[in-house]
Amino acid sequence: MPLIPEVVAMQEEFKAIRQQIHQHPELGFEEVQTSKLIADKLKEFGYQVHGHVGKTGVVGVLKKGDSTKKIGLRADMDALPMPEENDLPYKSQTPNRMHACGHDGHSASLLLAARYLATQEFNGTLHLYFQPAEEGLGGAQAMLAEGLLERFDSDMIFGWHNMPFGGDKTIYLKSGAIMASADCYTLEIKGRGGHGSAPEKCKDPILAASLLVVALQGIVSRDIDPQHSAVVSVGAFNAGSAFNIIPDRAILKLSVRALDTQSQEITARRIEQIAKGIALAQGVEIEINKQAAAPVTMNDPKASAFAQEVAQEIFGKEACCFEHPAAMGSEDFGYFAQLRPCAYAFLENENTHYLHTTGYVFNDALLARAASYYARLVLEYLG
Fold first, then answer.
1. Measuring CA to CA, how many Å separate 178 from each of 254, 258, 326?
2. DSSP 3-state assignment of 356?
3. Which residues pair with 163 in a beta bridge?
4. For 352, which DSSP code?
5. Which of 28, 178, 203, 44 has the alpha carbon at shortest distance from 103?
6. Contacts of 347 (CB under 8 A, 6+ apart)
7. 94 touches 24 (CB < 8 A)
8. Which residues have C-beta within 8 Å of that of residue 105, sequence separation ≥ 6?
9. Are strands 297-299 and 194-195 parallel, antiparallel or unpaired?
10. What is the pLDDT of residue 351?
11. Cα–Cα distance for residue pair 98/85, rounded to 1 Å
12. Positive/negative CA dihedral, 26, 110, 43, 69
């Protein structure tokens, strides 16, 4: 069963919507215009619309028939705080703001599916979750904290992300862990500054921070089971402002990822132990602030099997990959997967630029592919 012809026929209309969103990118919890556009379109299609779910989140509801079965589809809406360097007619018009992760395409594809499904017969309830602030700001948690699943519950929830793998498959969808957890750490090293010519009168936070950077790299190589996966990356090292002054403090910022909770817990414990040891040895204080950005995104076996059947019907068996390594990137869709059976998929973006780069371009051909996939999930489950 190929892509849905009616969906393909509407792709150009929703390509224009996608590019409109791209021109006016908004950061997490600031998606005011994007949310309004989505809400207006859903109302036009005949959905019950609920705004301000998790600040700027939007939920669309469409119930047909008398079945108690419910299915949820999710898309994210936020952009990134970075400039766009593409020479496109729909280039971002907001300085230092860019849809460099394709969330504009995710939202547009869900709107396209919503438009088609509004004209179809099914028996049950469809919930559309347009989520804000996926990029590390807690958008999923905000929606869930405001009673998303108490108000708009679903038996299963599905999501997808474009991915420039450079592979020859259309869709990648595996059971089990598909994306890593993400924890963000800020380590503030508090020493005693002074003149660069008299280090013995100081407690040098730069030396302590440097030792930390090196020691932290031993966590993955020596504390994590080699058959498991984890990443500890130091993304920022900020200290001092002059060549002859030892500063009072230094700050490290870490990104920590893992594919299972045990590795995540081991990493957290070792960061604390290593920091305490270096603080004691160097005579400094180290304050640790941890922010959990996302849990492991764990695809439910039954939801995954159902989604895999639908994917094969649409794209053909040869275009599907159901056994592939999990991505070490993270997704706060993982919070949905902790509460309901979920399946998260990747669609090949066919672009040489990776996500979160200034040259990234979303492939608009994915709109009809993703919308057809979403629509078939709904019609198969609520048929």
1. 22, 11, 4
2. coil
3. 348
4. S
5. 28
6. 160, 161, 162, 163, 170, 171, 172, 366, 369, 370, 373
7. yes
8. 18, 99, 162, 362, 363, 364, 366, 367, 370
9. unpaired
10. 83
11. 9
12. negative
Cα–Cα dist 27/29, whole Å: 6
Strand partners, 131: 76
Max Cα-Cα span within the chain: 80
Sole residue written with tokens 């008299």: 198
Positions of E strands within the chain: 48-51, 58-64, 70-76, 124-131, 156-163, 171-172, 176-190, 194-195, 230-239, 245-246, 249-258, 285-294, 297-299, 320-321, 327-330, 342-348
DSSP one-letter string for 116-182: HHTTS--SEEEEEEEE--TTTS-HHHHHHHTTHHHHS--SEEEEEEEE----S-SEE--SEEEEEEE
Distance CA 299, CA 305 (A): 10
Distance CA 261, CA 347 (A): 26
pLDDT at 1 > cutoff 70: no
Tell whether the torsion through CA atoms of 193, 194, 198 and 200 is positive or negative.
negative
The tokens of 109 are what?
Answer: 């594809």
Distance of CA 211 to the CA centre of its chain: 32
Residue 42 neighbours by CB under 8 Å, 6+ apart: 49, 58, 60, 111, 114, 128
Give, as one character, the DSSP assignment of residue 304: H
Tokens 């709904």 identify what position?
A: 378
Instruction: Read off the pLDDT of residues 254-298 as tens digits, 9 standing for 90 and up.
Output: 999 999 999 999 999 999 999 999 999 999 999 999 988 899 999
Q: What is the DSSP letter of 243?
A: T
Instruction: Count how many residues are written for the chain.
Output: 383
Query: Amino acid letter at 294?
Result: A
Please give the structure tokens belonging to residue 294. Answer: 């996302």
Read off the pTM.
0.92
Q: Could you report the per-residue pLDDT of 98-117, keeping only the tens digit for each?
A: 999 999 999 999 999 999 99
Amino acid occupying residue 228 = H
